[in-house]
Amino acid sequence: MKGLLRTLSLHASLVLIVLLVPVAVYELVSQSRLRDMELLAFGGALVYPAYIGLWIRKLRSARSRFILYHLLLVLVTAFMALIAGGNQPTMARIVIPAIVGAAALPVAAIAGLRGNRWLAITGLGSAAISLPVGAALSWGIFVAAALSGMRGGI
C-alpha cells in the first residue's frame, strides 16, 4: 500500500509539472524583454519529451525502447526544425527530420556486417517506423514553408 501511494503521488506530481511548467515558461518569456525569441517561448515544451522518455524507459523490451526513443527523437527534431527556422525556410531545416528518421539505417548496416543480428533487426525496425514519420514531417515542414511564403512569413 505504501509503494502504491508513493507511485501515485510521484505520477500526480509529474503530471502537475508537465501541465504547469510549459504554461509558466511561456507566460514568463512573453512578459519579459526576450519575447522576440520564438524558441525560448516554447522552452517549457521540453518537459513533454522528458516525461514521455520516462514512460519509455519503463518498458521491458529493449527493442521497443530503442524504436520509441528513436521515434521520439524524430518528433522532437521536427518540432525544433519547425520552431527554430523562423521565416527563412532552408533545405537543411526541411530534410532534417527525414535524415534523423533514416539514422538507424547505417547502425543496422554496420551491426549486420559485424554479425550483431539483434541490433541489425532493431535498427531496421526503427528505421521502418521512423523514416516514414520523418519523411511525412519533412513534407509538412516543406508545405508550411511554402504556405508561409505565400503570405509573407511563418
Fold and architecture overview:
With 154 residues, the protein is mostly helical. It folds into 2 domains: 1-58; 60-154. Helix content is 81%, strand content 0%. The chain contains 7 helices and no strands. It has helices at 2-30, 38-41, 47-57, 62-84, 91-101, 104-114, 117-151. α5 (91-101) packs antiparallel against α7 (117-151). The longest helix has 35 residues, at 117-151. The chain is flat.
Q: Topology, please?
A:
Blueprint: H1 2-30, H2 38-41, H3 47-57, H4 62-84, H5 91-101, H6 104-114, H7 117-151
Quick structural overview:
With 154 residues, this protein is mostly helical.
Number of helical stretches of at least 4 residues: 7
Mean pLDDT: 82
- Structural class label: mainly alpha
String of helices and strands: HHHHHHH
Helix content: over 70%
Termini separation comes to 52 Å
Number of domains: 2
Low-confidence stretches: none
Largest sheet: none
Radius of gyration: 19 Å
Overall outline: flat
Work out the strand percent: under 5%
Number of strands: 0
